[in-house]
Description:
Layout: E1 3-7, E2 11-15, E3 22-26, E4 29-33, H1 35-52, E5 64-67, E6 74-77, H2 79-102
Helix pairs in contact: 1-2
Amino acid sequence: MAQFFHHNDFGYCARCPRTRHLHVCFGNVALATTPEEFQEFRRSVGETWQHHCLRTHDPEARCIALRTSALRLALVFSLVELTQLRDILENTALLLEVELLLQ
C-alpha cells in the first residue's frame, strides 16, 4: 500500500512501496520521481512560486509557466494552483526529513 505524505484540494504525494518513487499528483498531472528528482522539482516550483508570488495581479489567472526538462514543455498554473503544489511539496519534504531523522 502506498504511503501518503501530504494532500490538499489540488493533489497529493505518496510513495510507491515497490519502487520507492514519490508520486506527485496535482491537477490532472501525475509525476513519478526518485527522491533526487523530487528535490529538484521542489526547488524549481519553489523558485517559480517565489518569483511570482508578489508579481501576479490575478491569483486565479493561469499565467505562470513552470519549465520542465522536456524540450518545449511547460506546465501552466495560476498562483493559487502553484501555491497548493508548493504546499504539497514542502510538507512532503518536511515529512521525509522527519522520517530520515527517525531511522
